Amino acid sequence: MTKKIRSNCPVSYALELIGDKWSLLILRDIILREKRFYHEFSASAEGIATNILSNRLAMLESNGFINKQRDTEDRKRYIYSPTEKGLDLLPVIISMMQWSDKYNNETDIRPPFMDMMRNDPIEFEKSIRAKFSG
Amino acid sequence: MTKKIRSNCPVSYALELIGDKWSLLILRDIILREKRFYHEFSASAEGIATNILSNRLAMLESNGFINKQRDTEDRKRYIYSPTEKGLDLLPVIISMMQWSDKYNNETDIRPPFMDMMRNDPIEFEKSIRAKFSG
């Protein structure tokens, strides 16, 4: 995928790739909720349309945020997993969580994520990364 | 602005507000580049279309990310400034900068921002916030 980069500003660069309402939600599903299959992403509460889901999964894969491998136990389906490049977006995701925790009274963060995120976000990030290492 | 919230996930909440390619760029201009006027945002390298710029400024104001005040020195124009709620998105912006610094060889971060962001992102954030305090 080559396209004209609108500027070399690092904020702009990140937004060109994940500046939409869905890409980081799919990464949230894969990284924080450990979802692995298309039907699991499709079932998330936000109700992503199947055409958008397919489009974003392809984008995330082609830009190296996730890996897609055929499931050896069920050859008809694929397993999605985060790459290091995808996991490195965790600080972006966590800082969004912290911001929403402050500004949205209705924020629902599942235990034990809520306490970990509030008390020790660095440890929180480490514990998530550890699930995908090795 | 009331609209149906798609879920109470904190990642989803933040993305519903600033999950697009432009809102955080305008906040970057206001917060990191200390731009204050419409024509200054319009002049940024990414070439934002005027209709999108107007739309996003109105959204950012109505959702409490920025303030808009008439310029007392030139009553025909407005001065835009960040609110605390807007400044609290700095960790999101900085974590995007760090991610791009790692994954985009062409990333151009102006000195002294580059060194500060790499060596001490917490101090970097503090120094930016200090410009808007009091």
Describe this structure in words.
The structure is a homodimer of 134-residue chains. The first copy, chain A, is built from 8 helices and 2 strands. Chain A is mainly alpha-helical and 134 residues long. Chain A has one domain (10-130): Orthogonal Bundle (Arc Repressor Mutant, subunit A), CATH 1.10.10. In chain A, strand 1 (66-70) and strand 2 (78-82) form a beta hairpin. The longest helix of chain A has 14 residues, at 90-103. The radius of gyration of chain A is 16 Å and the shape is globular. The model of chain A has no long low-confidence stretch (mean pLDDT 93).
Report the sheet-strand fraction of chain A. Answer: 5-15%
Major sheet size, sense and barrel closure of chain A: 2 strands, antiparallel
For CATH, the homologous superfamily of chain A is named as Winged helix-like DNA-binding domain superfamily/Winged helix DNA-binding domain
Rough outline of chain A: globular
Low-confidence stretches of chain A: none
Please, what is the oligomeric state? homodimer
Largest interface: A-B, 44 and 44 residues
CATH topology of chain A: Arc Repressor Mutant, subunit A
Distance between the termini of chain A: 29 Å
Report the top-level CATH class of chain A. Answer: Mainly Alpha
Give me the number of helical elements of chain A: 8
Q: Helical content of chain A, roughly? A: 40-55%
Q: What letter string, H or E per element, gives the SSE order of chain A?
A: HHHHEEHHHH
Q: What is the CA-based Rg of chain A, rounded?
A: 16 Å
**Strands of the largest sheet of chain A, in order across it?**
1-2
